[in-house]
């Protein structure tokens, strides 16, 4: 199984050449392809912040709500890996190692490790600090 980090997932929003190439490569892979609930959290926080920032302008919120709705439809097409007891245990163990990695990245790594999967990320420098985590950059 390969799991997209948020940076790979975000390429689909940009409708970039890189994103199109990633989609094509994912279609051709023999691996199951998934995302994590932590990546969903990261993306949702951004759209919710946008909506909240325009609280005094209901018409200004339309674009934010539209993007939020589109994202839910987008997520429905993916395997979403959950935050489980195994992921939480892995997270606690990695925290004890005092790795210099952000909380959300550590959560994504913990989910991927608990699933014995490979993380697709552009952030090779940070994720390479996580012992046992298989990483590849498909961008």
Describe this protein's structure:
With about 140 residues, the protein is α/β, with parallel strands linked by helices. It has a domain of about 90 residues: 3-Layer(aba) Sandwich (Rossmann fold). It has seven helices and five strands; from the N terminus they run E-H-H-E-H-H-E-H-H-E-H-E. The two termini are about 15 Å apart. It has a five-stranded parallel sheet. The model has no long low-confidence stretch (mean pLDDT about 95). The longest helix is centred in the first third of the chain and has 17 residues.
Name a few traits of the molecule:
58% helix, single chain, alpha/beta, five-stranded parallel sheet
Question: What's this, in brief?
Answer:
The protein is built from seven helices and five strands, in the order βααβααβααβαβ. With 139 residues, the protein is α/β, with parallel strands linked by helices.
